[in-house]
Amino acid sequence: MIRPLFVALRLWFLLIAFVMAFVVAWVFPLLLPLVQITFGVFLLLVGIDGWLLFRPTPGKQTAFFARRDVPDRLSNGDENPLTIYLENQYPFRTDVEVIDEIPFQFQRRDVLFRDRLSAHETKAIRYELRPTRRGEYSFGAVNVFVMTPLGFLKRRYQFEVGKLVAVYPSFLQMRQYELLAATNRLSEAGIKRIRRVGHSMEFEQLRPYATGDDVRTINWRATARRTDEQGTALVVNAFQDERSQPVYCLIDKGRPMQSPFDGLTLLDYAINASLVLSNVALYKQDRAGVLTFSSQIGQFVPADRRAGQIGRILDVLYRQKTRFQESDYETLYASIKTHIRQRSLLLLFTNFETVNGLRRQLPYLRRLAKDHLLLVIFFENTALRTLIDQPAQDTEQVYQKTIAEKFAFEKKQIVRELQQYGIQTILTAPQNLTANTINRYLELKARGAI
């Protein structure tokens, strides 16, 4: 009974006040009886407070109940909702303090909630957590400190002691894009509407002409056979995007991908974007696959569109870790040459900081581009961009801006060098990676380049 008992701040203040009152009564003895009576009443109230907190509740195992509702897995880089349910079984109003022991990876010590519950009332406390690393997270207990209206003592209740939760790549973002795609609202996530300059040769059906259709798709023979009350009704050939095209996300796990941005590493941004893109590719009836590499080849998921493919990709991406070594593009080329025989769209998530760093790997990228449609995706240094945009105040800042502009120019030079050899490129800020990658995939698909 002693371990769950805690003293409220109000009790300490009153004890200090009584000490001062007894000191004053020592100076003025006439006040001593009044102070003693008041102190006796105070002790009686403290006893009543303790009895109210610890008295047995008829028909209930405990007078207060709490439960943490946390998903079995969290989405990396996203705000994940959590809920703590509180149920007051006391026959009087209670003030509560709730301390949730969240995993140490969050490095937060401020998960404290205060609330007031009426007798037999139930409440829900909702908050969000944003993990920035994949792996297992261990939640501790939900500590609830309950006080009666007197507020002298607290009784601690502990619930939900120990719970392991896995943090997976951003499946919440994946579901968001999937929902927007299903409702034709991808533009809300920054996905552009692609203007088709042509169409694939895969015929789907005949349908009536609608405003905006390409007049070159009018089927004159079908039009001649179909008339309505007002005359001839135009009929057009409807084409569909080519399907079952292999789409592979190649994820570099080398040293440059460990660079952090907004709590996440570049590797995690690449993993989240790969998961979303793979899901969009499957939604577009293409085959999605993944290959990870660094100094050696990591995991390989062959491109497929069978049921459960996105689950297999998710499980593989969950286990990826950065290897603090230089990536071996020669081994990557040899592996792709062996395992990927059909012409495919290869989206290479990597990061080149200098032109010399690119040129060391350029021969292998050119070979890949001969056999496949290669799209190299690498990252802007947003910290340098912020430094460049700020006006210089002194000579030191002028030097810093000059160096920052040099590195930013090298990034643009890398883009030009890749494009010189017909290699598709995306230079993007990490926060725009997913939208920019999907935009380019849809553009290439609309052009029939895959």
How would you explain this protein's 3D organization?
Keywords: Membrane, Transmembrane, Transmembrane helix. Pfam families: DUF58. The structure is a single chain. By secondary structure, the chain is an alpha+beta fold. The chain has three domains: about 1-170, Immunoglobulin-like, CATH 2.60.40; about 170-195 and about 240-445, Rossmann fold, CATH 3.40.50.410; about 200-240, no CATH class. It has helices at about 10-25, 30-55, 170-180, 220-225, 265-285, 310-320, 330-340, 355-370, 380-390, 395-420, 435-445, and strands at about 5, 65-70, 75, 80-90, 95-100, 110-115, 120-130, 135-140, 140-145, 155-160, 165-170, 200-210, 225-230, 230, 235-240, 245-250, 260, 265, 285-295, 295-305, 345-350, 375-380, 425-430. Strands 20-19-16-21-22-23 form a six-stranded mixed β-sheet, sandwiched between helices. The protein has a five-stranded antiparallel β-sheet with strand order 1-10-9-5-6. Strands 2-4-7 form a three-stranded antiparallel β-sheet, with no helix packed on it.
Give a concise summary:
The protein is built from eleven helices and 23 strands. With about 450 residues, the chain is α+β, with helices and mostly antiparallel strands.
Got a strand count?
23
Structural class comes to: alpha+beta
CATH architect. name of the largest domain: 3-Layer(aba) Sandwich
**Termini gap:** 71 Å
Let me know the average pLDDT. 86
User: Helical amount among residues, as a percent range?
Assistant: 25-40%
Strand sequence of the main sheet, in spatial order?
20-19-16-21-22-23
Question: What portion of the residues fall into strands of 2 or more residues?
Answer: 25-35%
Number of helices: 11
CATH H-level homologous superfamily name of the largest domain: von Willebrand factor, type A domain
Main sheet, how many strands, which sense, barrel? 6 strands, mixed
Rg (C-alpha, Å): 33 Å
CATH class category name of the largest domain? Alpha Beta
What are the segments in which pLDDT stays under 50 over at least 5 consecutive residues? Answer: none
Q: Which term fits the overall shape?
A: elongated
Q: How many separate domains make up the residues?
A: 3
